Amino acid sequence: MTRPTAVRRYPVLLALCLAALFMVVPFLIVAVNAVKSPAEYSRNGPLSLPHGLYLDGLKDFWQRVDYSRKLVNSTLISGAVALLATALSVLNAYAIGIGRIRFRTWVLAFFVLANMLPQEALVYPLYYLSKQAGLYDTRLSVIIVFTVIQSAFGTYLLSAVLGQFPREIVEAARIDGATKWQILVRIVVPVSRPTLGVLLVFFFIWTWNEFLLPLVMLISNDNQTVSVALGVLQGQRLMDATMTNAAALLGVLPAIVFFLVFQRTLTRGIAVGAVK
Description:
Elements: H1 3-34, H2 38-44, H3 56-64, H4 67-98, H5 104-116, H6 119-133, H7 139-163, H8 167-175, H9 180-191, H10 193-208, H11 212-217, H12 226-235, H13 241-261, H14 263-275
Helix pairs in contact: 1-13, 3-13, 4-7, 4-10, 5-7, 7-10, 10-14, 12-13
């Protein structure tokens, strides 16, 4: 690496460090205030370091919202949506990108349009349909809705990837007698595994952070997700500053843990996409 090239990279590195700082500092402030007593918070402010660990805020929030159940609900919904949406995206993209269905451009435009619709426009139709189907206030209704929403984006992305898939490999497999299903399972999916890993991680985190549709579709306390429980309790004005920070910490921590666990999968998928 020549010296001018290294010098040109310093501003980029500095910008990345500043961006990381802006993302990490708020989380650290929330974590610090979550273990700070209300009296200490009022006396020293949100930027001071705690003199000890005050865990009552975390315990009170955990018990008040039945956080264990909310955690199970969010994990079940987000995990199911991530798996189903990724599988549906693969099937759709296989038909569009490799199968070359008719009116391919219009079909892709439809998926892009579906992905751009604001959720506010979907609230009443989804509420009405779930009522008619007997799925209202069930986790299955939210899983179905977000599987379709997330797979719209996944189909558009994978269609572009599979559209560049080497036709020679597919034709060679067909000559060897492979069926369409065997080509998908034994050739397309293994080659596209890094991209599928990226979609899986994104779908899980995106679904975990959803608030509006779960708030409308899940009204009973036993079916609510973590984000809905946070919003409902906050709206009732039942939390002090310490419990608010504890709630925010418990709400975002599982998603961060999931991201860190699958960080290598995400990095590998992005790197492979950049090389391609």
